[in-house]
Amino acid sequence: MLNKEEKRQLVKVSNLYYIDGWTQTQISKKIGASRPIISKQLNMAKEAGIVEVFIKDECVHTVELEQQLEKKYGLEEVVVAPTIGLTPEMVKRTVAQAGAHYISKNLKNVKYLGISWGTTIAELVKEYSSEQRKDIKIIPLEGGIGRQRIEIHANQLAYELAQKMDSTCSYLYAPAIVESEELKDRLMEMSDIKIVLEEGKNVDMAVIGIGNPLKESTLKKIGYLQNGDLDDLCAMGAVGDIGFRFFDKSGVPIRHPLNNKVIGLSLNQLKKIKKVIAVADGIHKLESIIGALRGNYVNVLIIDEQTASMILKQS
To answer: Where does the record place the Sugar-binding domain (predicted)?
Structure first.
């Protein structure tokens, strides 16, 4: 228990340090005590409740969400973009900006960067700032050619990101989903396709999106999924997809015939990549993101604030 004089000393030191902005060295000279003693007194002031430190910033809540998600799912890192009050379009853009910034700052020792497809990844590439990364090669992780929404396909995004980085890219000259398993097998034997798929398996870092095939599905909008497919996927418990590969609420891959027609990395191959960064936004993807996290397909998650909060409440 502090006596009156001890308490007065702690208040004096605390005022000089926190209110007047003095350094511990300046305070030690003024009151004739060593700097370690001043440091100890400042800690005592906090322990005694004389000083209470509050961090007042809009980022406090998002940082707390990041730490909770990292701990809950054993993630290497989580970035939660502050998005309260924004329109869905602005939410996507804000998350994409966070993703672009994160990737740009974490490319040390990355020689091969894999990229998936989708509207969020396309927005990320759009927001990526031009820089010199001539030593990096961009690899599409699945096929993507055709007439429907080519601007969100992996080949196009690999090309655009390579342009932003002043680097090079590979092209996977095949659709993401082909008409039959036989056609897929024939295409997979082609050397140009086989080489790029091998590159994809061995990238140092992969950037992926997470989709919900049953709600606001881009796959349905561009014609990859028909109503019959959706009914089957729903019956089989599918809640999400990564690179045209479907999984259930526990992250277990769904055994659907579509899997046998996809030209791209499998979920098991994705899991073996050293660093997989998922960039996702939207409450409609809540179950999809949770399933991806439970399946351990992701090392780094970049997400909007509302969805991050809901993940912690739901899971």
So the answer is: 59-313
